[in-house]
C-alpha cells in the first residue's frame, strides 16, 4: 500500500509518499519533500499564522507533484491521501486539508484525516519494529505531552504542560538571549560551550507525582537573570543557554519517570519509550532519555531528527496505519485547530 501524506499545520509545507512492507513491520519512505518557511517568519521572532497559510498555498501543489515524481508514482498508484487535520494553525491546516480532499475527490481514493500528534506518536513504527502499547514523549513548539499509545487511534494522555510547550520555552528563552528563531538548535549549540552550573534555575514540578510539565517559571527565571546582567556578554549567553538546557533535561527526565510509573500502573509494561516533535532532535535530551531507559530496562526508540520535526512522511505513515485498519474519513471532515489526542 502507498499513501500520500500532506503536512501544513505550522511552518513546514510538506508532502511525502510512504509504502508498507509486505508481511513485515515498518515502512519505506519513497519521497519526503519538506519546505521550511523559517526565513519568512524569522524577522518576527516566531510563526505568523497569516504568512504561514499564504506560504503553504504558494508551494503546496508543486511540492505534492514533486513528492509523487520523486517516489516514481502517479496519483493512480496511491491507495489513499492523508493530511494533518490539526492540531495547528487553522489557516495552514485548511490549505493542506483542502488539497488532500480535492485530490481524493478527483482520484476517487480514500481520504484520511490525521491528528498531527498521532503522527509523531506513530513515527517509531515507521522506522522500527515496535509493538503496542508504548509510551510517547511528544515535545514540539506547540505541544508537550506524555501519551500511552495503546493502538492506532487509542491513546491515553498521561501528562501535558500546564503552560508553555518545551519548544516554545526554547524559542522564548532564545529570543531573550538575542538569538534567532527557531531557538532550540541555537541554544543547543551555544550550550556546548557554556557552564550549566553557573545559574541556579528552578525545575518546576520535579519531584511531584504525575507526569505534567510546567515550564513558564523556568523561562521567567531566565528573564530575571538577563535583567540582572543588563547587557549579557557572549559568555553569559552561553552559560545561560547551558543552565537553561540542563534544567529542561532534568525536568524531562523527572516527568518521563512519572509517565513510566503512571503507564505501568494503568497499562502494564510499555514496550518502549518513543520521542517525537522538534525538541526530540536535542542531543542532551536524547542522551538523558537513553540513560533513563537503560536504567529502567526500557527500549528507547528515537527516530532520526528529520522525522522528529514536521514532515509529510509521518502523516503518510499515520494514514497508512489508519487505512490498514479501515479508518477513513468523509470529505466534510472539518479542520481542528485544537485536537487533543
Ligand atoms: O515539531 P516541530 O518541528 O514543529 C512544531 O510542531 O512545533 O518543532 C519545532 C520546535 C521549535 O520550538 C524548535 O525550537 C524546537 O522544536 N527544536 C529544538 C531543537 N530543534 C528544534 N529544541 C531544542 N533542541 C533542538 N535541537
Ligand atoms: Zn510537530
TrEMBL record:
UniProt remark on cofactor binding: Binds 1 Fe(2+) ion per subunit.
Major subcellular location class: cytoplasm
Catalytic activities: L-threonylcarbamoyladenylate + adenosine(37) in tRNA = N(6)-L-threonylcarbamoyladenosine(37) in tRNA + AMP + H(+)
GO cellular component annotations of the record: cytoplasm
Keyword Calcium tagged: no
Coiled-coil residue spans: none
Transmembrane segments: none
The enzyme's E.C. designation: 2.3.1.234
UniProt domain Gcp-like: residue ranges: 29-317
Cofactor: Fe(2+)
Purpose of the protein: Required for the formation of a threonylcarbamoyl group on adenosine at position 37 (t(6)A37) in tRNAs that read codons beginning with adenine. Is involved in the transfer of the threonylcarbamoyl moiety of threonylcarbamoyl-AMP (TC-AMP) to the N6 group of A37, together with TsaE and TsaB. TsaD likely plays a direct catalytic role in this reaction.
Cited NCBIfam families: gcp_kae1, T6A_TsaD_YgjD
Family to which the UniProt record says this protein belongs: Belongs to the KAE1 / TsaD family.
Record protein name field: tRNA N6-adenosine threonylcarbamoyltransferase
Organism: Methylocystis parvus
